[in-house]
Design a protein that fits this description.
The chain has five helices and eight strands. By secondary structure, it is of the alpha+beta class. It has one domain: Nuclear Transport Factor 2, Chain: A.
């Protein structure tokens, strides 16, 4: 599989996840290398369990629509490759059916494992639209299925899905 095919496989898996099926997403992530995700809801996830747990949580949000990659740029050297693009949502809706404007930049990093390209890092712009859709017009996040925790990079308390857990005490010490 070429790095371009790995990029395409990621977007196919992402659209399957939006439709509620995370099987393809679980299949494309590295198993032999450390993996990380800087996702649209904020924070940094480290490790396969945390990253795929977040995709599982996103699949359960009841979103709909598809993501189309545009303005794709690829690079490859040895056993490492990257892709960057702009993602545009088509017919994208939140779990409550509200339209969501999805238009953001992403970067994926791939490494070879047993001759196949596997994703090891996914970085996406923070997306205000996706961060606030659960709270309706007020823009406040629902706490259902979420925890108040610390974002060590923003150094402020935020709400994250239960799959991303840091203690509130760590936030006070990080400031």
């Amino acid at each position: 599989m070429s790095a371009q095919l790995a990029h395409d496989a990621f977007h196919a898996a992402l659209n399957a996840t939006i439709a509620g099926d995370t099987g393809p997403m679980h299949a494309i992530w590295a198993m032999e290398h450390e993996v990380t995700k800087l996702g649209p809801f904020g924070g940094m996830l480290v490790g396969r369990r945390a990253v795929l747990g977040q995709f599982d949580a996103e699949a359960a949000m009841g979103m709909s629509g598809i993501i189309v990659p545009e303005d794709i740029h690829m690079g490859e050297g040895g056993d490492m490759a990257f892709s960057s693009c702009v993602e545009r949502g088509v017919g994208f809706r939140s779990g409550d059916g509200s339209p969501v404007d999805v238009h953001h930049r992403i970067t994926n990093v791939f490494m070879r494992e047993a001759g196949e390209w596997r994703i090891v890092h996914h970085h996406i712009d923070l997306t205000a639209e996706l961060r606030s859709w659960r709270g309706g017009s007020s823009g406040q996040h629902s706490t259902r299925g979420r925890i108040r925790t610390c974002d060590p990079w923003l150094r402020r308390p935020v709400l994250y899905p239960l799959s991303y857990a840091r203690s509130w005490g760590e936030c006070r010490h990080a400031a």
